Amino acid sequence: MSYDLVVIGTGPGGYVCAIRAAQLGMKVAVVEKDQTFGGTCLNVGCIPSKALLHASHLFEEAGHGFEGMGIKVGKPKLDLATMQKFKDEGVDGNVKGVAFLFKKNKIDAFIGAGRVVAAGKVEVTGADGKAQMVETKSIVIATGSAVAQLKGITIDEQRVVSSTGALTLDKVPGKLLVVGAGVIGLELGSVWRRLGAQVTVVEFLDRVLPGMDNEVGRQSQRLFEKQGITFKLKAKVTGIDSSGKTLKVSVEPADGGAAESMEADVVLVAIGRVPYTKGLGLEGAGVALDNRGRIVTDAHFATNVPGIYAIGDVITGPMLAHKAEDEGVAVAELLAGQAGHVNYDVIPNVIYTFPEIASVGKSEEELKAAGVAYNAGKFPFTANGRAKVNRTTDGFVKILADAKTDRVLGVHIVGADAGTMIAEAAIAMEMAASAEDMARTCHAHPTLSEAVKEAAFAVAKRAIHM
After folding, report:
1. Which of 204, 274, 365, 453 lies 20 to 30 Å from 89, alpha-carbon distance?
2. pTM of this prediction?
3. What pLDDT digit, counting tens, does each position of 1-53 carry?
């Protein structure tokens, strides 16, 4: 069996790469170690978590928001089994959608663990232990990432869980302790807090959402605290005693000091993810890795071994599904002799809590560190007409623009539907728009996105409604 391209991994990067390559006339095959396509994102990540975030938000609205709008439904009752079924149905639909697209684009699929034997050769070992060799002109490694482990802590996916186990709990924990105040910890912590858990988040650093704009982190933390989430910053989990009915979690100050014991029914370890390169045969094939275990690639996603490429979470850059997708398209186009490209300065990032948190481009701290002079325009949702009538006034839009050219360098949004509104900012930045360009673009009224227009006006200190 010989192909133009074999893609190892069918997450967002891998399946998109395969489809684009097939569109460009290549004979394509994919290799997937699991029984379903879609990788972590579709099966145990992005998609199921958004289903639970959506359902739990509606549950909370029914219990706390409806009556104030004249909707009397009584106290809602949680049927967690049905909510989990709702989530699973959404996952199933998306996974089957990928299988359909493979069939539509005449892409062959090999189910089994893929191993790069050498340039042009991929060995696939099925669950029955039988192996077959697949020959190809090019190989793209798109195996994604795995859960980062906390030293000395064993994840059993029952009481000490990763994001995978946190998506399948069969009852609401009385006390949930989340290790890590990043995207995964805050999203899944929000789900179980809405459904009735007492949630405490332990973070090693002195802030939530490390890497994001500091003002966004501070305001977001205040909103989460108002919702009932407790934060223990500059602290680390050093051990978990699971011998009793409840977990005894040892927590120490990050800078050193006496430990305290905290009780929890479930502990969610959400300290990040690491590149998944296990069993791929990279060392034997001569593929170079960096000191963080990522595959080293050039600007065209090529490794040091001719004919072998890599995209997504296994290479440098943010571990985001849409980043992997864009890289998948780019490498397929490059293999077809076209000009594939990814603009890493315009990769949006969204946290799907409520309110949502979204950003694209540079933060204020990054601009200051780089010595870039900028102007900032900020507009609160408390001054937005649609937000007022929708009772979604938490948050703000902040636009950062070059002080000399007015070119938009970064946009940060905390607010309802921020994940949708950030797309406007990404398009503006991709087109090298100025803040004035965004301000002079007519926005429909009444919409939340008018806050983006007003923030753009505010860069020049001329917001209308503030």
Report:
1. 274
2. 0.97
3. 799 999 999 999 999 999 999 999 999 999 999 999 999 999 999 999 999 99
In this structure, whether the domain defined by 2-146+274-335 belongs to CATH 3.30.450.20 is answered with no
Buried residues in 348-369 as b, exposed as e (16+ CB within 10 A): bbbbbbbbbbbbbbbbbeebee
**Domain 349-459 CATH class label:** alpha beta
Catalytic residues: 445
Name 222's Cβ contacts closer than 8 Å, sequence gap at least 6.
none
pLDDT in tens, 84-140: 999 999 999 999 999 999 999 999 999 999 999 999 999 999 999 999 999 999 999
Which tokens in the block code for residue 188? 């899944």
CATH number 3.90.550.10 is the correct assignment for the domain at 160-271: no
CATH 3.50.50.60 in the chain is located at 2-146+274-335, 160-271
Q: Both ends of the chain: CA-CA distance in Å?
A: 66
The set of residues, in sequence order, having a beta carbon less than 8 Å from that of 404 and lying 6+ positions away, is 373
How many angstroms separate the CA atoms of 87 and 402, rounded?
Answer: 43
* Residue 135 phi, psi dihedral angles, 5° rounding: -100, 145
Q: Match 């070119």 to its residue by tokens.
A: 407
pLDDT digits (tens, 9 = 90+) for 375-402: 999 999 999 999 999 999 999 999 999 9
Q: What is the dihedral of CA 395, 399, 400, 401, to 10 degrees?
A: -170
**Selection from 242, 146, 237, 244 nearest residue 200 by Cα:** 237
Strands 273-275 and 145-147: antiparallel
Angle 12-23/80-104 helices, nearest 10 degrees?
30
Where, residue-wise, is CATH 3.30.390.30 in the chain?
349-459
